[in-house]
């Protein structure tokens, strides 16, 4: 009985985590619509100067977006990203970063 209870709790917990993960992925996908113009629908840039975001670490993406917003990144096409980052909240940045960091991973390959 005790093993069954533990197994049931683990299953419920893992299902809840998966649902939360899936929801954040979908929320991030919606928030990333404007990003897709330059960084591609699949996270692979459509134009050479723009970086690929697919599979990039979430912490790096969040840091980069914050740096654009605070004007710490100024080279290249930074002015375009500064304008985009200005419109984002911290939660938006987390959601978008989560989306791109998990894009193409096994857990989300069926949802793409």
Automatic annotation (TrEMBL):
List, alphabetically, the PROSITE patterns matched: CYTC (PS51007)
Recorded GO molecular functions are: electron transfer activity; heme binding; metal ion binding
Among its keywords, does the record have Nucleotide-binding?
Answer: no
Under InterPro entries, the record lists: Cyt_c-like_dom (IPR009056), Cyt_c-like_dom_sf (IPR036909), Cytochrome_c_Oxidase_Subunit (IPR050597)
Keyword vocabulary terms for this entry? Electron transport, Heme, Iron, Metal-binding, Signal, Transport
Among SUPFAM superfamilies, the record links this protein to: Cytochrome c
The name this protein carries in UniProt is Cytochrome c553
């Amino acid at each position: 009985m005790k093993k069954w209870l533990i197994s049931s709790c683990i299953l419920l917990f893992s299902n809840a985590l998966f649902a939360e993960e899936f929801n954040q992925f979908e929320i991030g996908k919606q928030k990333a619509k404007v990003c897709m113009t330059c960084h591609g629908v699949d996270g692979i840039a459509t134009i050479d100067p723009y970086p690929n975001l697919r599979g990039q670490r979430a912490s790096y993406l969040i840091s980069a977006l914050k740096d654009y917003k605070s004007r710490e990144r100024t080279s290249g096409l930074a002015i375009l990203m500064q304008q985009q980052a200005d419109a984002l909240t911290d939660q938006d940045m987390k959601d978008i970063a989560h989306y791109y960091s998990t894009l193409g991973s096994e857990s989300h390959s069926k949802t793409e």
